[in-house]
Amino acid sequence: MSCITRPLLRRLLLSGSSGVALALVGGADPALARSPIALEPGSLVVSTSTYENTQGAIARLAVGTTLPDTATATTKAVAGNDYVNTWNNASVDGSYGVTSAIRLLDLDPVFGHVLHTVDVPSDQVVTSFSSKSELGLHLAGGFLPRLVFVAYGGAGVGALDVSNSDAVKGQDPTNPVTFAFGTGYAFPRTIVSMDILGHFSYTPTIDYGGNNGRSALLGSDGLYYAVGNANNGNADAFGASNGTNPDVTETTGLEVVKPIDAPSVDVSIPTGNSSEIDPLMQDSFNGKLDKPGKDNNYRGITAYNGALYFTKGSGSNGIDTVYTVPSLPSLASAAAATIGIVPGFPTDSAKATGGDFTPFGVFFANATTMYVADEGSGNATDVASHAGLEKWSLVNGTWQLDYVLTNGLIGATDNLTGSDGAYPTVTTVGLRNLTGLVGFDGRVTLWATTSTSSTSGDNGADPNKVVTITDVVAAKTATPQVAAETFRTVIGPTYGTVYRGVAFVSPFGL
Fold first, then answer.
1. CB atoms inside a 10 Å sphere around CB 143
2. Under 8 Å CB-to-CB from 166, ≥6 apart: which residues?
């Protein structure tokens, strides 16, 4: 296989089956790994982070250290800073988390061999280690693709509770994190863009105060579209009267953002640089509402044929389902745009179902075939009917569930031991972020990050994996061929490390 050069690999990816081309990637010319570019054609890029407790506030954390409790009280840490036990602090501090550096791995998509490693500058942006919904990846297409994701600006490694901090200083006086650490403890949720040479640019925003930005993509119109959550305090009304500035109830959900793309996060955010799409969506459900900003607690997002598709699959309010906006709104038209549930997907409230459906990533194989990664809530209905990789088909204008792929995935267990001792047994329960490649042989190869369950104080800290499976696009039922399809691990699990987002790098420059 050493004779497989980059030009030949590109031709194979274009003209052959995805399975044949991907098999060749694993034995490709070693020169690929020496390329100056950070994203190789035909590779899989994965966002990852490793727990670090030697820097920042986490280095000093011990039992009894002050942590946030409510907007009028603090609490004491019940665990120190070791990787195995520190997450037990979530039992007394609902905002508990530790910032960590972001690493991007460019892998051969078959065997997980690392082609390139890119360390995202941690003096600019970081992630929250236990926040399992962060670091979704998206590639803007074209001759020179750009990788896009969301992170926290200016927090540094080892900071506590950043994922529930304000996005703007003094934004929410009712936020427990603000009460514990002061009004200056705020970090802009920042859209990060990386070019194929590994150069970064940053667009800080005022959005997602009190919670986390999950994912963002660059639209064909040149604007960013981001999803996330907000409101860690007691803001319970819309508009300036709720005491938050900017209003956390209108800096959540699906946001359209004008790129700043500065060389540093230390840049002022222009007034009106982002706008919530369909802000009244969060106030449209019957029954007792959670505080505003929670009904549109979105996470996975993708764009297809000029429309946006995104998911809600966590929290007890609103509707856990797949949503869409049929065209890309501008900053000016965002508030008037309408968000709708994709026809055929659930329309019942999350309060009533209690986790029957927990969608995350979405991938379109074609205009009538959609794959949805389901995280798996542990709810009996979800485990039996949705958890894993769902395949949906469009029939007479309505999407219908064909089958769910779970072989080699659900129930798989891992036991890891490292410098801080044995981590609790980790069980795979579903999938989160998702990407894929459609071959010319009628098959689609998909990659996803796994979701997990353990006795850890925060399952978002569990070591997880990147897995892959190949499916027959035209299949509508679980034929013997489909029934034999099995998930295989590409990379992980790794002690102290989490895998968050995945994106397949299509051939470019051909």
1. 8
2. 172, 175, 177, 178, 183, 185, 186, 187, 209, 210
Distances (CA, A) of 96 to 165, 298, 373: 10, 21, 26
Element (H, E) at 499: strand 497-505
pLDDT in tens, 270-310: 999 999 999 887 766 655 556 677 788 999 999 999 999 99
Q: Is the pTM of this model over 0.90?
A: yes
408 token code pair: 């080699």
Distance CA(462)–CA(428), nearest Å, equals: 10
| Residue found by looking up tokens 């869409």 in the block | 324
CB 142 within 8 A of CB 508: yes
Q: What is the pLDDT of residue 186?
A: 98
Residues 341 and 347: beta-carbon distance below 8 Å:
yes
Q: Where are the domains of the chain?
A: 133-153+188-354
Are the beta carbons of 434 and 361 closer than 8 angstroms?
yes
Return the closest-CA partner of residue 289 out of 244, 238, 324.
238
CB 50 within 8 A of CB 102: no
| pLDDT recorded at residue 17 | 45
Least confident of 73-82, 154-163, 236-245: 236-245
Considering Cα of 288, then 292, then 297, then 298, what sign does the dihedral take? positive
As a whole number of angstroms, the distance between CA 57 and CA 98 comes to: 9
Predicted confidence at residue 490, as pLDDT, reads: 97
- Report the share of the chain in percent with pLDDT over 90: 76
What is the C-alpha to C-alpha distance for residues 340 and 30, in angstroms, rounded to an integer?
A: 48
Work out the pLDDT band at 7, boundaries 50, 70, 90.
very low
Mean pLDDT taken over the chain = 89
CA–CA distances in Å: residue 448 to residues 373, 402, 431, 435, 503: 8, 19, 6, 6, 9
Q: Which is more confidently placed, 332 or 506?
A: 332
pLDDT at residue 21 above 50?
no
Specify burial of residue 482 (Cβ count, 10 A radius: 0-12, 13-18, 19+). Answer: middle
Quote the CA–CA distance of 232 and 209 in Å, as a whole number: 8
Nearest to 436 by CA among 359, 365, 361, 508: 365
Distance CA 58, CA 92 (A): 16
